[in-house]
Amino acid sequence: MGTDRQSHETYQGLVIARRAESCSVDQVVRDCISLQPTQLQYSSLRPVLVECFCGKVFWMRTRLGFIFSCIALVAVSALSAAKACAQGKSLPRATPESQGVSSDAVLDFLKTANDKVQSMHSVVLVRHGKVILEAWWHPEAPENTHVLWSLSKSFTSTAVGLAVADGKLSIDDPVMKFFPESNPDTPSTNLKGMRVRDLLTMATGHQDEPKVRDQTDWIKTFLSHPVPHKPGTHFQYNTPATFMQSAIVQKVTGQKVVDYLTPRLFEPLGIESHQWDDNPQGISIGGYGLYLRTDDIAKFGQLYLQRGVWDGKQLIPTDWVDTATSKQVSNGSDPNRDWDQGYGFQFWRCRHGAYRGDGKDGQFCIVLPDQDAVVAITANTPDMQSELNIVWEKLLPAFHDAALPENAEGQAKVKEFVSTLKASK
């Protein structure tokens, strides 16, 4: 490489540096591919970057082709690098008082939840986009993922909304359209009239849930189940209907819901640790089976609170967020029960102008637009209404419009109490 000509023929150097808070492997790869899209395959780059995506990426052009080498910014293990990236995507932290909430009220909430909910596992409280409370009941911990049960449904409906935005389907498409090979020989009029919208609102027309769990073909079992009611007229909680949403997304995109959501939702939110169980046909279960960290549940709620916007980017269309979280069907008339306030697209309406995704045993992502707050909870309790009541009774009155004087003593008491928490089951 003694001359400029030899240097030019031998290589061209390009350095791409990414800061830790922007450590998206896929984004780095896309940046590189945009430079020479015809000479480098995404699939060949991504495995190389996975090991060192928090470092600097050097792209060198040689006579033999493109060579990737990664030099770590610091001598860290892959595990610590991943942790640093996750922290770079974390919600900011703040004191309760700075966001208009009293530390004394936070402590009262924690003590009440600890006494009355058997058993709490974790809670993350977000106000004005900042985490003002985070607590885990030992042996639960911030880095642990937790089963979401039916809170998974809200993520599945989000995938449907993104697929609609991508032009892959319409919510008014008939369900039978997607699985001609699995349809009954003589489908009923009501089955023919069942739309994707009816899957989303739990108004499929079923009198009871199809029993799919012990079957090898869940799609065919669902489509063979009697539909005595006109779709759209009868609310019936229906987990297999959420599975069908997952199956439809996979059919029209060629990807499992978990894979479809990864670049569109999980990566932008910095959700690194996620798992979604499959059914026997290799389809994400949809209605349950997702595992996330509590902090990630809070991020999901904050994204919806911000009407689909994250870091200035519209991840979910605003009209989808508004429709999915508003009342689409009636599901009861008891004004004191949070399961009777209406149902959207896999989101429950709540009292006090709030909405939520929830799951068996007390998993919650509660969004309170009027208070600009999100509450993420994991637990193992049979009484989910009592769990919600504690939020309404202890946290709602604690939200103030303006910041409060700092209370170092109160904050220390909260920290000390959190350190003593232990799950009973």
List the main descriptive attributes of the protein structure presented here.
Beta-lactamase; three-stranded antiparallel β-sheet; 35% helix; disordered N terminus; 16% strand
Structural features, described:
This protein has 425 residues and is α+β, with helices and mostly antiparallel strands. Among the domains are: 85 residues, no CATH class; 174 residues, Beta-lactamase, CATH 3.40.710.10. Helices cover 35% and strands 16% of the residues. The chain is built from 15 helices and 14 strands. A 6-stranded antiparallel β-sheet has the order 5-4-14-13-12-11, with helices on both faces. The protein has a 3-stranded antiparallel β-sheet with strand order 1-2-3. It has a 3-stranded antiparallel β-sheet with strand order 6-8-7. Strand 12 and strand 13 form a beta hairpin. Helix 2 packs across helix 3 and helix 5 runs antiparallel to helix 14. The longest helix has 15 residues. The N terminus is likely disordered.
